[in-house]
Design brief:
Blueprint: H1 3-16, H2 19-26, H3 30-44, E1 49-51, E2 56-58, H4 60-87, E3 92-98, H5 100-117, E4 121-127, E5 141-145, E6 153-161, E7 163-167, H6 169-175, E8 191-194, E9 203-208, E10 211-216, E11 222-223, H7 226-234, E12 239-243, H8 244-253, E13 257-259, E14 268-275, H9 282-298
Parallel strand pairs: 3-4, 3-5, 8-11, 8-12
Antiparallel strand pairs: 1-2, 5-14, 6-14, 7-12, 7-13, 9-10
């Protein structure tokens, strides 16, 4: 075990606030992670964390050591980036996160192509529709759909993605087709919401003749998995808001039908976020450029001449 590995483990324990989470991140057992922290505390002759059965909190000495340890890791990352820039031979792992729909349709299929071009680079891909914290989860790159709020990260826009409201013919036969956003408010329709723990209400922002307007919607089903919502819509359980590229085949086949065409959803942005560094990691830069070129080529973004 190297002292450098011990410092990396300490930093991840500090950032994640959990020994087991840091162990998973570092791909070691919780016992190994705990032993590294114990040896580091013995080496420094201080206690870095206060441990209870339910929590792990840094001590004042732990907070001081973290600041210096983080600077060391950042310096090593920048030194590695400088060497790889000179040699043109990027290597190592890139930890990437993406929403389920984007990840399954674009990122995952392109990973083998990227690996073929850069065989010394490994991609560690995590897919989830929940909100991602790039720093605390140790990510190098996170793709997103929407408008990110974290100004501490750098952003690269990849594409604008139109969205549609749609439902299955069986649902529309049973409940009728809403003409605009106003018809969705109240108990007139069942709307399928993508939401997460802690959400108390949900609104869809639609483009009206008077400009963007928010409509409070509700329905019997909600999920934090966008593909589950699509399946519920296909099964006739309600109206769903989706990026066009996720439902284009269902719209063309007639399994889903666009509704509220007079007040369509506002488009969302597909982009990626990555940490600020004085020297960007070359392998991360290469992956961003690769995806920026290939994803728009794969993506259908225009809902032209849809059957309605």
């Amino acid at each position: 075990m190297s002292y450098f590995d011990t410092i990396k483990t300490f930093v991840r324990v500090y950032e994640l606030g959990s020994m087991s989470a840091a162990a998973r991140d570092q791909r070691v057992s919780p016992a190994v992670a705990s032993a590294r922290i114990g040896q580091l505390e013995q080496h420094l002759n201080v206690r870095l964390f206060t441990r209870t059965t339910r929590s792990l909190q840094p001590t004042e000495q732990g907070r001081i050591f973290f600041e210096g340890a983080q600077r060391i890791l950042d310096a090593v990352v920048e030194a590695e980036a400088a060497v790889q820039d000179v040699t043109g031979n990027p290597r190592g792992s890139i930890f990437v996160a993406a929403p389920l729909g984007v990840g399954r349709r674009f990122i995952a299929p392109l990973v083998p192509d990227f690996k073929a071009e850069f065989p010394l680079v490994d991609i560690r891909l995590r897919l989830s529709d929940r909100t991602i914290d790039v720093a605390s989860e140790g990510l190098d790159l996170a793709f997103f759909l929407g408008t990110p709020q974290d100004s501490a990260l750098k952003m690269r826009k990849l594409a604008d993605c139109p969205r549609v409201l749609c439902a299955a013919p069986a649902y529309l036969d049973r409940r009728g087709a809403p003409a605009d956003g106003a018809a969705l408010v109240g108990d007139g329709h069942d709307c399928l919401a993508l939401r997460f723990p802690g959400a108390t209400e949900f609104q869809w922002q639609l483009q009206t003749p008077d400009g963007p307007e928010r409509f409070a919607i509700k329905g019997p089903f909600e999920s934090d998995d966008g593909d589950v919502l699509t399946q519920w819509a296909l099964d006739g359980h309600g109206i769903v808001m989706k990026p066009f590229f996720e439902v284009s085949e269902h719209l063309e086949s007639g399994d889903l039908v666009e509704v509220c065409a007079a007040t369509p959803p506002l488009p969302v942005q597909l982009g990626c976020l990555y940490p600020h560094r004085r020297r960007q990691d070359p392998k991360v830069r290469l992956l961003i450029e690769f995806m920026a070129k290939r994803i728009p080529e794969m993506m259908r973004t225009e809902p032209d001449q849809l059957p309605r």
